[in-house]
Design goal:
Blueprint (H helix, E strand, L loop, with lengths): L12 E2 L36 E9 L2 E10 L5 E9 L7 E4 L14 E10 L4 E12 L2 E12 L9 E4 L8 E7 L11 E7 L5 E7 L24 E2 L5 E6 L5 E7 L10 E5 L16 E4 L5 E7 L10 E7 L9 E2 L10 E9 L10 E8 L12 E7 L5 E2 L3 E2 L12 E2 L2 E2 L6 E5 L2 E6 L2 E2 L5 E2 L2 E2 H6 L7 E2 L27
Antiparallel strand pairs: 1-30, 2-3, 3-4, 4-5, 6-7, 7-8, 8-9, 10-11, 11-12, 13-14, 14-15, 15-16, 17-18, 18-19, 19-20, 21-22, 22-23, 23-25, 24-33, 26-27, 28-29, 29-31, 29-32
Length: about 500
């Protein structure tokens, strides 16, 4: 995908919003959601005044999100920002991680990227892991994976090295999670995944047993597999499941640990990933978005065109597992009918961990084009959310986060195209889902919207379930695909 010229100057910004409306049953009558800004870019050393690529996590009444601030065209950002609500999304405070980059608190690194949020429930500590980026002599590189810690989600300590600091490394796409299940034999363990693009996207995993203060040496899968964009989740029995794309993001695979991260299995082939090229050079790949419910069922969503004629548009598709090895057939999430020509991409999935069984509450946020065949700036980049109250058996109609949400003149340019983020996020505050995503407006920032589950329960005429459509047969691939000799050029996405 071609990059936009870096000569643009941005008079508008990016914001985070709270959704107050619910969706109608037809796309043409899609409800609009109101939004509230929760962060903005204060830095003046960058022409691209933007905030992009948020992750978030919630625990109790606290929601924490982290994101890139001041994106550079050739990779990384001026710093990583954070925004925290202590009252289930009613009010927010925000700031920027200290001592990470040279722009904030005299940190040791040039830039930050790929923020991932986790919570260490055993001793009540919030974690934000970051890809620390070096940039010198025209060479931009993922130099280290680090983690910042906070006891309240508001005051952040200097980052702790997970891997890479002080050595020559080439790293990408970190993701952190913690085992917060008291019944788990490994309760309190935290796990971080990343890959090494300089080593054919070799998958690395590191484990912390003290809430992120120290981290173990990186370990690989049993066959030293490659991959990109993994999102580890932990089941109540302590099993860690890591859904991850292969090195070329053409197939979804997974691997597990059943011994608290002491060892990792070989990868299991899950499904092919077939992605339609999104119009107007938007930077997007079929990276998985994963979540786990209180019963240990893991849900994975990505963008895929397998259900559309001639791969003409991307849908949101999903597969599930209860053990990380055996996966359900891929199903299409029916946001619109097949053939509607709506293009869906960059998903952010959340599960309400207070719901169980047949009543599991899912929330899925994504970007979309109303017309998959659009060209250039005629493409209307929008954001919507759908919800399920029965574990994905049926879904609501979509709710749009404002109309014509993105002004192309404000979208940051990168060497891989226009960027709103390689991922976005959703988290539940109480029974309310908070989608968090980049959205252009007259002030810099991210955008957040909320959807109240009790509104859907109280007003069933607003929540019109659409049954999940029949699936194609599961398209698996051979693990032979993972052998080094068959890999193409490593992919970097920082």
């Amino acid at each position: 995908m071609g990059a936009r010229s870096s000569k643009s100057r941005f008079s508008r910004k990016w914001i985070i919003f709270i959704m107050l409306g619910l969706g109608a049953s037809a796309f043409a009558a899609m409800k609009m959601a109101f939004t509230t800004e929760i962060s903005s870019d204060p830095y003046t050393n960058q022409s691209q005044k933007t905030e992009v690529e948020p992750d978030s996590y919630s625990y109790g009444s606290t929601i924490v999100t982290a994101f890139q601030v001041g994106r550079f065209a050739d990779g990384g950002a001026v710093d990583i920002g954070w925004a925290t609500s202590k009252d289930n999304g009613t009010s927010w405070q925000h700031g920027f991680l200290p001592a990470l980059t040279k722009y904030q608190g005299n940190g040791p690194f040039d830039r930050g990227s790929d923020a991932s949020v986790a919570y260490y429930a055993k001793h009540g500590v919030w974690l934000v892991s970051t890809l620390a980026v070096s940039a010198s002599g025209g060479n931009v590189n993922g130099a280290a994976v680090v983690v910042s810690r906070s006891s309240d989600g508001l005051n952040w300590q200097s980052p702790v090295n997970i891997y890479g600091e002080g050595i020559s490394a080439s790293l990408d796409k970190n993701w952190t999670t913690c085992d917060n299940w008291p019944q788990s034999p490994y309760y309190g363990n935290c796990y971080t995944e990343w890959d090494e693009p300089g080593n054919w996207n070799l998958i690395d995993m590191s484990t912390s047993t003290d809430g992120g203060l120290t981290w173990g040496a990186p370990k690989n899968t049993a066959e030293q597999a490659s991959g990109l964009g993994g999102q580890p989740v932990v089941q109540p029995n302590g099993t860690v499941v890591v859904p991850i794309g292969d090195a070329n993001l053409g197939n979804l695979q997974s691997f597990v640990s059943t011994d608290g991260g002491q060892s990792w299995s070989s990868v299991t082939a899950v499904a092919s990933m077939n992605s339609h090229d999104v119009g107007n050079g938007v930077r997007t790949e079929p990276l998985p978005s994963a979540a786990v419910d209180a019963n240990g069922k893991v849900y994975v969503v990505w963008q895929d065109c397998r259900f559309e004629n001639n791969c003409s548009a991307n849908d949101m598709v999903m597969t599930t597992t209860t053990d990380g090895v055996n996966w359900s057939p891929v199903v299409r999430i029916p946001t619109e009918p097949v053939g509607s020509n709506v293009d869906h991409f960059i998903p952010g999935l959340a599960v309400d961990r207070a719901t169980t069984g047949a009543a599991v509450h899912l929330s899925l946020t994504y970007y979309f084009y109303p017309d998959a065949g659009c060209n250039g700036t005629d493409c209307q980049l929008r954001v919507a959310t759908v919800q399920s109250l029965d574990g994905g058996a049926s879904w609501s109609a979509p709710v749009e986060m404002g109309q014509n949400v993105v002004d192309w003149a404000t979208v940051p340019s990168t060497t891989m195209g226009h960027m709103v983020g390689d991922y976005i996020s959703s988290s539940f505050g109480g029974s309310t889902a908070f989608p968090i995503f980049a959205l252009s407006s007259k002030t810099d920032g991210l955008a957040m919207n909320s959807i109240a589950a009790n509104q859907m329960n109280a007003h069933p005429h607003v929540f019109t379930p659409v049954r999940v459509e029949p699936t194609l047969s599961l398209n698996k691939y051979s693990a032979q695909y993972l052998r080094f000799a068959e890999r193409r050029k490593p992919l970097r996405l920082f």
